[in-house]
């Protein structure tokens, strides 16, 4: 018989853990209310939910938040959603890093073991965030009447959809062809204790049904809502999330429409060629940004010093793992496929460790610091700028961009092409790239699949490092190829190719969940798969 324990309740992030006791919230006047009293109070004054909404977003950048239930474990890859994005990138085919203990984001697929720390981080991070969303939803009316309560509920619904959309892609293959396959357990604000501790994996179709229902309501509730910053989900961001979901479900016409709505409602426009001719993507203030994690100097992930995304990923930080050589680089086959006429070629150092993005004198000290480091190699990324654009800055307080105009434009181009209008998809894609990245760009194959493949290449380049590349491999049912024509810049041990939809490409459900949830048995987990070895698939 399985044991129900606190670890399960924390790991899945369910609000039910708190229903066992009177959870107290402090009011501005210093008095307290129980959860039950709070629901009544919110009906009269939705402003009481502001703290819960802020907590929901804060859960995305919480230091050591995913493993806090396990003997206060403090793993340096446990710093919220930006860490998850790096896990996704380094498990793919386009981002490399040297094989060392200083690299917390290795590419060896060892995290597919269901008792690995990474499997716990992935599972807990998203269910903790779902818990935070459910907490807001449980304290709001299903039929909100005021504009403020609609805005709170709309954000929580969209936020929950964001998390289930990630879980669905990590624990089962893409929607088409797998609609009836087991996905992940569903926890909502209505889930009872008995249901939570005996909660089978819902089908892919059922999980996507919840995602679409949440997003449909969110878009309705967020109409007219103007967020205080891009750290909050706007209606434009909700349209963008639905565009992602429709893209996965191959509802092409709706995906194109939603991507277009995301652009129109948000008013976001792509970074200009001039703007990306220097290290960028480090602030939510850019006109391209639709939604972002706002990260301030006072956040614990910043005051920790090095346990944050810049510490692991920004080549210019003066305080992090990159200072001991854990640079993140582009795989050489993709770099070689970028034309020299494309400004994005400069987002990485060339074979001579040079880039026009760092030609300014203010980067001299940075280059001199690492000139003799054996791990300062060609193809290191210089895409992501330092805090306040000051190289060697020791304060790692850059924002993390979750959604921007370029992604929506690329979704629109692909979806138009695949919905029966490849000419229009081609025009959208060429218009974006020619105007903002490479004036000589043309799509050579104007068929629907030809445009789709052209968009995929542009996504690999444009969105490199932002958490999309691995999911695209799964969505498009492509093989994961780290070696092309004998060329790879991955460490030797990680040079292999993996066929499309191989079992190793999915994560296994955490052992903590298996041990605590009577609804999932060992036999109902994703299958055990051998970790690939050097030379496999070549």
In short, what is this structure?
Residues 1-36 have low confidence and may be disordered.
Descriptive notes:
- The chain is mostly helical.
- Among the domains are: 6-225, Serine Threonine Protein Phosphatase 5, Tetratricopeptide repeat (Alpha Horseshoe); 295-398, no CATH class.
- 40% of the residues lie in helices and 4% in strands.
- The chain contains 20 helices and 8 strands.
- The chain has helices at 6-11, 16-19, 35-44, 50-58, 81-90, 117-138, 147-171, 193-196, 204-221, 235-249, 252-266, 300-303, 309-313, 332-336, 364-370, 405-418, 422-436, 448-462, 469-475, 511-516, and strands at 25-26, 32-33, 95-96, 289-293, 329-330, 400-404, 480-481, 497-498.
- Strands 1-2 form a two-stranded antiparallel sheet. Strands 3-5 form a two-stranded antiparallel ribbon. A two-stranded antiparallel ribbon has the order 4-6.
- A hairpin with a 5-residue loop joins strand 1 and strand 2.
- Helix 10 packs antiparallel against helix 11 (252-266) and helix 17 (422-436) packs parallel to helix 18.
- The longest helix has 25 residues, at 147-171.
- It is globular and about 60 Å long.
- The two termini are 45 Å apart.
